[in-house]
Amino acid sequence: MTGVRETAGAAVVGTAAAVAYRRILVPRLMAWGATDDEVAGPFPGGDLVPGGERGATMAVTIEAAAEQVWPWLVQMGWDRGGFYSWDLLDNAGRRSARRVHPEWQDLGVGDRLKCLGLGSYAVATLEPNRFLGLYWLGDLRGKPLDSRQPRPAAYMEGLWGFRLTELAGHRTRLVIGGYQAARPRWFERLMYGWVFPVVVWVMQARMLAVLKRNIERTAPALAGATVETTS
C-alpha cells in the first residue's frame, strides 16, 4: 500500500512539474527580454516557413546605433565570427569574434553561414541595418532539403531572424525571433514544446548578452568608421 501511495505521489508531483514547466517557465524563457508587443506583434519571414508558428522572441537594448550593431550580425558563422554564445557548444570551442572583421562583411541573399549540426543557414532576407533572416530546412538527421520540392513526411524548418530598430539616443533594440515547423506532428510538439525552449534560452540569452557587451565596448571606437581594422 505504501508503494502505491509513493507511486501516486510521484505521479502527482511529476504532472504538476510538467504543467508548471509548460505554462509558467516556457512562456518566460521564450520571451526573454522582450515586450508583450514584440512577442505578439508582426515579425518578418513568416512566408518562408509554410505552416510555421512563431518561435522564441527575445530582445535586448544596445547602447549603440544600428549601423554599429549590424556588422556583428553580418559576420556570424561557424567559420567566421561565430555566434557569440557558448562557444564550446555551438562553435567547436573556438572563441567568437570580439571585434568587427572587415573580411567578413560581404554578405548577400543566397549566401550560406556554416553552423554546427545543421550544416549551414541560407541568408533568406537581408535589409542592411534593419533585418537579417537565416533559413534552414532539413530532415531529422540534419541533412539539408530543397525548399522548392514538396516537404517530406519528416523534416524540420525554421527562420531565424534578427531585427534592428533605432531608438532615441543612438540606441538600438535587437529582437531575435522567427518561425518554426516540423513533421511529424508529435515530433513538432515534443521538440518545440518541451526540448527547444530551454536549449534556445541557454544559447540565445547568452548571445544577446555577449553581443550587447561587445558592441557597447567597441561602439565608441567604431563611431564615424565602418569597421575596426586592428586586432
Give structural notes.
The chain has 231 residues and is an alpha+beta fold. The protein has one domain (32-229): START domain (Alpha-D-Glucose-1,6-Bisphosphate, Chain A, domain 4). The chain has five helices and seven strands; from the N terminus they run H-H-E-E-H-H-E-E-E-E-E-H. The radius of gyration is 20 Å and the shape is globular. The termini are far apart.
Outline of the structure:
The radius of gyration is 20 Å and the shape is globular.
Number of domains: 1
Q: What fold name stands as the CATH topology?
A: Alpha-D-Glucose-1,6-Bisphosphate, Chain A, domain 4
How much helix, percentage-wise, in residues? 25-40%
What is the assigned CATH homologous superfamily?
START domain
Ranges with pLDDT <50 over ≥5 residues? 224-231
Question: So how many helices?
Answer: 5
Tell me the CATH architecture: 2-Layer Sandwich
Bulk shape: globular
What would you report as the Rg, rounded to the nearest angstrom? Answer: 20 Å
Average pLDDT metric: 91
Number of strands: 7
Strand content: 15-25%
